Amino acid sequence: MNSIHVMLMYILIHLGLIFFLFPFDIIASTDQGHWFPIMIGIIIHFGSLVIYMRGLEFFPKKNIVGIYFGYGKGKAVLFLVPILVYLILVLLITTRAYSEIINIVFLAHTPLWAIIFLLLFVATYIALKGIETILRTGILLSILFLPIILFVFILSFQNVDWKYAIPIEPDFRVFTKPSYFESFFAFSGGFLFLGFVQPYFSYKRKNILLSACILIPFFLFAVYIPVLTFGQSTASTMFLPYVVVVDSLNINWLMFDRVTMFFLLSLIGFIMLYTSLVLWKAALIISSFVPKIKVNYLMILLSVAVFFFSFLIPNWKEVEKFFWWTSFLRLYILITIPLSIYLLGIRVKRKSNNDTY
Amino acid sequence: MESFLNGIKEKIGDNDDFFTQLDFLFHKEVSLVGLSTMIDLSKTKEALYQNVRRISFQEPNSETIWCILGEVVNGEMKKAIKAIFEGKLIIYIQNTNQYIIHDPVPKTLNRSIEPPMNENVVQGPLNSFIEDIDTNIGLLRKQIDSEQLFVRSFTTGTKYHKKISLLFINEIVDKDLVDRITEQIEKHKDRDISDLQGLSSMLKSSKWDTVFKFNTTELPNHAIQYLKRGRVVLFVDNLPIALIFPNLLWDMFVVENDRNFPYPIMTAIRCIRVIGILVTLISPGLYVALVAVNPEVLQIELALSVAQSREGVPYPAIVEVIIMLVILELILEASIRLPKSIGPTITMVGGIILGQAVVEAKLVSNLLIIILAATTIANSTIAGAQGSISVRVFKYLNVLLSAIYGVLGLATGIVLISAYVASLNTFGNSYLHIRLERNEQSR
Questions:
Q1: Hey, what's the torsion of the CAs at A234, A237, A240, A244, to 10 degrees?
Q2: ipTM, interface predicted TM-score of the complex
Q3: pTM of the model
Q4: If exposure means fewest CB atoms within 10 Å of the residue's CB, which of A284, B175, B215, B386 is most exposed?
Q5: What is the mean pLDDT of residues A340-351?
Q6: Does B301 contact A at CB distance below 8 Å?
Q7: Inter-chain contact A122–B439, Cβ cutoff 8 Å?
Q8: How far, in Å, CA of B99 to CA of B4, rounded?
Q9: What span, in angstroms and rounded, lies between the C-alpha atoms of B430 and A4?
Q10: How confident is the model at residue A125 (pLDDT cuts 50, 70, 90)?
Q11: Is A133–B423 a contact, with Cβ atoms under 8 angstroms apart?
C-alpha cells in the first residue's frame, strides 16, 4: 500500500522535471547519438538510486537527517548543509523557471509575481499539511493527470520521422558541454526524498527501481521526439522543444486546439507537488538545526523568502546562470549523499556484527 | 414514609402530566408514579394486574416477587426522577422506602418504519431508519443476525440527555478506531448534542472542515454493508440516520445497492459518478477560464461560437457565472424549504428564469445555461448527501481561481482540492482509503 504512494510520487516528480528543460539541454549538448548522454545520465541515476536505497536499508525507520545527526553535528553539517542549499536553490529555480514557462506558454498578460505567488502558495499549503498529504495528493493527481500525460505522450509520435535518429554514433564531446551537466537536474532532483519519507512511509527497493525503469522511455523520448519531428538543427533552436512538438499536434476530433495546455497543466500540477516536497524537506533540515522554531513557521518563512528572492533574478539569462552554478552542487548530491549513507550503513552493520560475536 | 413521594412531587409535581395513583399489588398498598404523556396508563395497569395475578398463583413470597415486576431500588430519588423522564413507571411500595422501575406500555410516539425519504432505492430493501434508537439497532440486529455485532451505548449531556450507540462487527473492525471513538465520546460525555455539528466537534474534528468525519445513510441495508466492511456505525437518538465512521472519498462513488446489478453495469454506474464529480468541479471553472482568459485553447470554430453566444452580455464571465450559480443555489435551497404543495411553483419559475428569460434578456449566455444544467445534474449523481454538498462548495474555488489564472487556475484548484481531500483523516484513517479491512491486514 505504502509502496504505491512512493512509487507514484517518484514517477510524478520526474515527469514534471523531464519534459521542460531536459530536452533542451540534451539537444544543446550534442548533435548526434542523443541516446548516449541520456543513457549515461540514466546509468548514473540508477547507480545513485541503488546505492542510496541500499544505504538507507541499514537504517530502518530513520530519515537521512536522523542518520547524519546520529554521527555528530560535524557530519550533519558536512552533508546536510549542501543538501539544504541545493534544495533552496532548487526551490528558487523551479518556481522562477516554471513561472517563466507559464508566462511564455499561456499567461502572457499575467504579471510574473502573481504566477510565482500562486505556485508558492499551493506548494506551501500542501507542504504545511505534511508528508502524508503530499504523497496522498500524489495519488489523486496521478489518477487525474497521468492519463492526460500518457495520451499526449503517445499522440506526440504523430509527426515523427525515424530517419532523423541517424547518425546514432555517440559524440564523446558531450562531457565538455556545460549544458550536459545542467541536464542532470532531471536525474538528481527527485531521488533524495526517498531518504526523507522513511518513518512515515515504507517502500520496497524493487518497486522504486521498477518506477525508475518506467521513466526510462520518458527520458529517451522527451529528447528524441523533438529531434525526430524537427531534426536536430531545427530542434536545437527551440527553447522548449517538447512543448513545441505538442503544440504542433493536430487532432481533429478533439474540441481543443492546443493540447499543450492540458499537457503542461498536468505537468505543472506535478511541479507544484514537487516544490511542496522540496519545501517540506528543506524545512525539515532547517528545523533539525534550529529545533526551537516550528516546522510550519519555517515553511512559511522559507516560501516568503523564496518569493522575494525570485525577483532578484531579473530574466531568463540569469535563471540559466543559476542553473549552471548549481550543476556542481547537483553532482555533489548525486554522488556523495548516496555513497556516504551507504558507507555509514556498512559501518553500522559491521559494528552490530562485532557486537553479536 | 411519605417523604419519598413528597420529595418527588416537590421536584417535578408542577408538571401537569405528572400523576400518582394509589393501587394494591400483592395485598400491599403501592403508588404508581409516572408521566401520563409517555405512559399508556390503562393498558399498563391491565398488563400489570395480569402479571400480578399470574405470579401470585405461583409463589406468593413477598421478598423476591417484586423483582419480577422490574428493578427494585432503595429510596434513591434522583434515579427515580431520571427513570420517570425516560418514560418508566415507578411503583412505590408504601411504608418500605423501596420502589420498582417498571417498563410500562408506552404511548406510541414513534412513526412506523417507512420507505426512505431522501435516499432512493432501485430494487433494494425499502425500510429505513426512524427516530427511535432502539428500533434502529433492532433493524440492524434483525438483518445481520450474528454474535459478532456489538453495541455500545452511552448517555451524553448533563441537562438534556441523549443516547448514543456505537455498533461494530468485532472480528472485522479496526479495534483502534472503536477505542478512539469510545474514548472521545467518554471524554466529552457532558456535552449536549443536538445536531451533527455537535457530534462532529465531540469527536474532535475541526470546526472548519467542509467534510464531516462520518458519512450518513438512512438505509439499514447500507449500514449493514458498511459494518461488514469494517466501518463503525453510530446512532444518535432522534436522528433517523446512521452515521458511518470513518467517511471515505470512495463513498461518494459507491452505493451498496449497486451490487444488485451485474458487475459491468455496476462499474459503469460508478464511472458515471466519477465523471459527475469531475464535471461538477471543472465545468463552471472551465467556462470562465476559456471565455475570459484562455480562448485560444479552443478550436477556432468553437471559440467563435462561444463568443457569439456571449454577444451582448454586459459583464465579465466570472460575474455571469457567479450570478447564475447563486440563483441556482437559491432555487435548491428554496425547494427544500417549501411545503410540497408550493414546491412545483418554484421549479417552474426557476425553470423559466434559468431556461429562457435570462438568455433572451441577454443577461447570460446560452452556453452558460447548458454548463449550469450539466453542473447541477452532475452534482446530483454523487452518492450521499454530505458528499455532494462539499463538492458543491469546492466548485466555487475553481471558478474564482479560473477567473484570475485561466486554465492554470483551474488546474491549481484541482491540485488544491486534491491536497485538501488527501489531508483529511478520521482517527488516523485517511480519507483516501478504499477499504478498511484490507488495510488492517497490511498493517
A1: -40
A2: 0.92
A3: 0.88
A4: B175
A5: 86
A6: no
A7: no
A8: 10
A9: 15
A10: very high
A11: yes
